[in-house]
Write a structure and sequence with these properties.
Pfam families: AMP-binding, AMP-binding_C. It comes from Exocentrus adspersus. One of its GO terms (cellular component) is peroxisome. Among the domains are: about 130 residues, Rossmann fold; about 100 residues, ANL, C-terminal domain (GMP Synthetase, Chain A, domain 3). It has a ten-stranded mixed sheet, sandwiched between helices. The termini are far apart. The radius of gyration is 23 Å and the shape is globular. Strand 8, helix 5 and strand 9 form a beta-alpha-beta unit. It has 15 helices and 30 strands. By secondary structure, the chain is of the alpha/beta class. Helix 4 packs parallel to helix 5 and helix 10 packs across helix 11. The protein is about 25% helix and about 25% strand.
Amino acid sequence: MLRKFTSYRNFKRTLKTPVNIISSPVADINIPNNILLPEYLLEKINKWTDTDKVAVECIETKRKYTYPQIRKSSLSLAHFLQKSLKLKEKYGVAILLPNLPEYPIILLASMQAGLRISTINSNYTKDEVKRQLIDSKAKVLFANAERDKELRSICDDLRIQLIALKTHSNVTLSNGTINLFDCITSSSKNLEEIYPTSVTSDDVVILPFSSGTTGLPKGVQLTHYNLVANLMQTSAKEFDIVTEDTDETILAFLPFFHLYGFMLVLLHGLTRGAKLVTFPKFTSQHFIDGLRLYRPTVFHCTPPVVHLMTTNPHVKLPDDLQSLRTILSGAAPLSEADVERFKEVTKGKVDILQSYGMTEVSPLATIQSKVLKGGIKIGGGGFLVPNTQAKFISIANPNQVLGVKENGELFLRGPQVMKGYLDNPEATKATITDDGWLRTGDVGHYDEDGHIFITDRLKELIKVQGFPVAPAELEGLIRDHPSVEDVAVIGVKHEKLGEAPKAFVVKRKNVQVKPEDIQEFIKAHVVKYKHLAGGVTFVDDIPKTPSGKILRKELKKLI
């Protein structure tokens, strides 16, 4: 039985709101003070455990699980993690998988066992995976069997137990690697319920990695309370695009290793009893097949997907979109041209909404709403979700809180703000103020309705198809090339990617090196979206401040 929860933390408005501090137009909600994320999720999911309702189905293999099967399999795996592997509560596990039907089983099991989960980009190279495993202090790694031999040496070096998802009989697992399917199938019909006993709502449950405003990726500590809060905030009737309709179907192509896909698609979808159609990889053909075979009612996406729907000649309009009710786009603002084209082809019958957030706020801070005045505006991010405050600070004068339509850096405060960066107090202090305000590094403003717009970025991050790329990471790798003396990386506009990394390189004396050599060098070390699709330009020197900081604005003038 789930516990009853009566304790709440309230982020209530004061009777007098400070000047230029904005809050949500939606009433604050009561967020339980002592509920754990698995308890919150299972309380919702248990509504469908007496049915044969499909929870997840793979668009490629058609492998699927019903809600009862997910419930039983996750409990079986939780027992295995606790009793067979002897994992203690608060130990770390890592998931290196694409969007597969087994993903929610692994998540729920790990949460029930009281473990801390770090999600890893399934396209990461061996070096990138190893770095995150070390930083996250993982004891177990879940991965595809196809990567078993590649990962075996890492797991042996770090003394990590590898559990592989083996879906093909012709794949042989290495000695020491455990088959996931041996862990999720129990002969017992009545497994004892497992709930963490030493874990509190202030403990970290998810540890995704983000570059924050600058620098290399850092572990973002998100607590049970953070994630329960954001699930409840986005479930407010004014913002929720997913109902408990028995026919709700969602195309789940946003990666689960990214917090947007993890929270808004996977967890929120499961709490609503939706059918999630998982995409191990996104291709335009898979997307079109998903539209036609599964007739989705809602889905979450990024601007390139909206562009694809209205410009790809293989999408039959409006027939392929006839089942859609709403789409919610995030990661970057939608262009006016894409929004108008979408409205035209759907004859205004499909709501197209936008949102804004970041990993450090679990992840959503704002959502557009079709039921609130001024709730849908092209280029806008929407209104603050309940229990959240925002302010825009002058870049020229950090002590000045700006008013309507005045551009400044966005600061956020609310129950969804992260606990801090793992083992990095300096970065945490630079990001979260003493009174709980989180610096986003994004520049924008709010209008007379309280609608928030993001117009620019203070932070150095490059967003490639919605994925953040840290220049510092690429610069560190390029400096290892024997022909490179110095380097700086910036983001440049790219027709297909939105933005792409471009490197400015100072060559060592008396060496012969071509731009393609640098690009191929990077390709061997990082995932595809971090490749130098913006090109490589050789320069005599890198412009810097007296303290050595790269003047990226000066480099942009060279484009």
